Amino acid sequence: MPALDTAAKGWTMGDDADKMVPQKFCPRFGMLAVEMGFVSVEQVREGMAEQLDDDIANRPHRLLGTIFVDRRWMTFREVEMVLERLFKLQQQ
């Protein structure tokens, strides 16, 4: 696998990689859905794999919440609850 030309972009990935991550990390939808007890880590993995399969097959991209509702792992209200929490965290 060829190395990325990070030096040309002005940064390197050595021991300073953690400095590139913002101090105020915003969790993703799947992480919050797991933390809130709506889905399991394995279900998030399956949903992400389904997203990737759709993208590779040039099917329309679907959000994880849509996939979880389609598979009946979450309800519309649970998706709304995760999104509400996600938006509140982003505003802090």
Description:
Residues 1-25 have low confidence and may be disordered. 50% of the residues lie in helices and 0% in strands. It is mainly α. The radius of gyration is 17 Å and the shape is globular. It has helices at residues 29-35, 41-56, 64-70, 76-91.
For the secondary structure, the number of strands is 0
Contiguous helical run count: 4
Q: Report Rg.
A: 17 Å
Derived from helix and strand composition plus strand pairing, the structural class reads mainly alpha
> Regions with pLDDT < 50 over 5+ consecutive residues?
1-25
Q: How would the global form be characterised?
A: globular
Largest sheet: none
Whole-number average pLDDT?
Answer: 80
Give the DSSP E fraction (strand runs of 2 or more residues): under 5%
Share of helical residues: 40-55%
The span between the termini is 39 Å
Order of helices and strands: HHHH
